[in-house]
Amino acid sequence: MFPYIDANHWPVQPFRLLVPVAILVGYLIGVRRLKGQCIPRERVSELALLVTLGGLLGAHLLKLVYVPGAFGAALSHPWLLFAIGNGLASFGAFVGATAAVLIFFRHRSGTPWFIYSDAGAFAVPFAWAVGRLGCYLIHDHPGLRTNSWLGVKYPGGTRFDLGLLEMLFLLLLGCVFLLLDRRKRPRGFYCITFLLSYGSFRWGLDQLHVDPPRYFGWSVDQITSSIMILAGIMCFIGTMRHKETHVHE
Fold this sequence. Notes:
The longest helix has 29 residues. By secondary structure, the chain is mostly helical. 63% of the residues lie in helices and 6% in strands. The protein contains 8 helices and 5 strands, in the order αααααβββααββα. It has a domain of 147 residues. The radius of gyration is 19 Å and the shape is globular.
């Protein structure tokens, strides 16, 4: 079993420290992946900035969906939208980052989307794992009680720590990506693989939540996981159509 690390008395909250580290790790890996693609460094930096801002904004705003009635309260008290000290939503970060990417390509066309998306998707497991380490250290995602060796010895009894489990999954996925990268892969491969694998993992991880909020019988993570899996399927179809177009040209 994993130990329960009490970081409440640390001088700096580890999550707040590790989030910028995660962003930096993702940026450096993404830039390295884009080398040799004839893409100006300025354009890469512009996209990285948009993705970072969009991701943080989405993570901040969409955390409200995890609290039933929060949007209604925010309409009555708009200042709640500016309260930044009560967590972030991971799927909200993906939504915000995706919106930023769409805005970028609307105004900066000319480069196939999958060149950027593959670089980003390859970097995400490593960067996201750093962020989830912060989640584990502050234990903000306690799961069901368990006797599994993957459990964490919480003060009130052993539980799954969903931040820890996701960190372990992301590290494993990153190792798989490194192994797969020994050979040249089709364009769009890492983007599609990440969307399908991470979406499927989060669907399964949702089963370990303690009474997650639901809308129309579906939990928030089930809804967002399904959207991510659907996006992966659509990206796969898009790459196949792109390939067929070039074959017939």
